[in-house]
Amino acid sequence: MAEPAVSAHEVRKIYHRRGAPEVTALSGVSLEVRSGERVALLGRNGAGKTTFLKIASTLLAPTSGHVEVFGHDVDRTPGEVRPLIAVVPQEGKPFFHLTPREQVYTYLLTRGFARAEARRRTDEALGQMELTEVADRLSVTLSGGQRQRTMVATVIATEAPLLFLDEPTIGMDPFARRGVWASLRSLTRKGSTILLTTHYLDEAEALSDRLYIVERGRVLVDGTSEGLKRSTGGSLRVTLTGPAATPEAFGSFGRAYPETGALHVVTTPERLPELLSFALRQQVTAAVGPVTLEEAFLRVVGRSIDEES
Ligand SMILES: Nc1ncnc2c1ncn2[C@@H]1O[C@H](COP(=O)(O)OP(=O)(O)OP(=O)(O)O)[C@@H](O)[C@H]1O
Ligand SMILES: [Mg+2]
User: Fold this and answer.
1) 25 in ligand 1 pocket by Cβ < 6 Å?
2) pLDDT-based confidence at 1, cuts 50/70/90?
3) From 74, 175, 249, 261, which residue has the greatest number of CB atoms within 10 Å?
4) Could you tell me the pTM of the whole model?
């Protein structure tokens, strides 16, 4: 079996700053990303996602524990790791005085690509990110989403064996996000591995083979988005509105919880006809949809918050 792309064991990170209290950002993260996988790290703000990506991409030393990238320890042999990876950092910006074309092209040259190959890849990546029209304007004149697309273009052009993308589609419109998804899928078809973070759970669902939910510096759960959704107790969510839509009346059909003036019930297709005819008799309006990853995330993380407090 091929070596894992990322293998992390009990990674801890405590930030120390003189005169400031210590911050424990990671308290024992173990995870594995297999070669060729697309894996998402999910978690609330401050959960430790960026800290983990920085450690795994050789930008930050762990306090203890270790991470291997394709078998190389990131802390002891960063020089072996760096040629194998490319990173879209959180809130990174392209150089203001370069155009997107110059930015992508020079980055490829510094990574050792020959000029002709660098030019070909630059054109291709700019095209994939739909930046061709603005490719020769200074980055300082680009919109926020166009700058972010430039960051992603720079990294996908490398076709590095392992890509770390920290909120790669932040600020992008729905078309641009789908463009990124398509490019990342095509990269993994060619053999790359992807570890990304995102707060867009539809993106995590569309893109990742597997995901980890991180909370307070620990892995809470890992699995597929399908598996995680199943753990909510059903595949359907029925949204009920009307005076009689109460947890007491509908709780027997599945987990029922009120939100924004409606009652949501997570249930199974088998229970649905009965639920709908009951709702009709109670003069309650019902809308049926699939359970989303967002729902599963809120449940899993919410339960952990309740247990801590
Ligand atoms: N340089 C630093 N010095 C001190 N504390 C830090 C530093 N960087 C991050 N932290 C803290 O470490 C914790 C984890 O931060 P991190 O940036 O890894 O979270 P995150 O999961 O990426 O969050 P977000 O979704 O907001 O990007 C937070 O409590 C944060 O305040
Ligand atoms: Mg972050």
Assistant:
1) yes
2) low
3) 74
4) 0.94
